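Sample intake sheet
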Amino acid sequence: MTQPPGRNTTQVRSTDRQKALAEAAARLLIQHGPTAVTHRRVAAEASVPAGSANYYFPSKAGLYAAAVRGAETIRRDSAHAFAQSIPQRNRGPVQTARLLIETFYAPGLDADLVTVRLEPMLAATRDPHLRATMAEFRPSHLDALRVVIRRSGWPAIADGPDIDLLAQMIDASLLYAGLAGESDPVDAAARSVGRLLELAAA
């Protein structure tokens, strides 16, 4: 039995609105952190009526879960686009490390990277549902790091077994730099990760 055209149009519009809300929540999470992911703010970001976010995502947990998944999707796509744009040439350890950080935290770095991006990502792993989402996307993030390492002249590390360990050190170096009050946590972390690259290649 064929459905009336009006019903299909309504379903499409409903799906599009839910997608727009999820994408808006993801952008807010990336740009401003978890506190920005509220029903009212997400609706405003998506340019839809104020009650729409509550309708499609009745709980705050459901809205935040959509934000995390959307943010990881943006991060994955941006990381691969950035990695593929890097010209092939040999680079020093610190320069390579900075590119790795830029890739791992795509779509962009800012002064609040540790508090706005890293700390919420670590906090998400405490929730079983969010942890599963983060784990689902992690292999793709690691593949982007491999591309950067290989294009920067470190093939043995790119093809080695320790990419996940390197990713852990990126997080740890940034977190330590933030806690230590470094004026430029990314620069400090790049030096630490660069040293790790040197040790791994020795």
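Comment: The CA atoms of residues 102 and 168 lie 15 Å apart. The chain has a mean pLDDT of 92.
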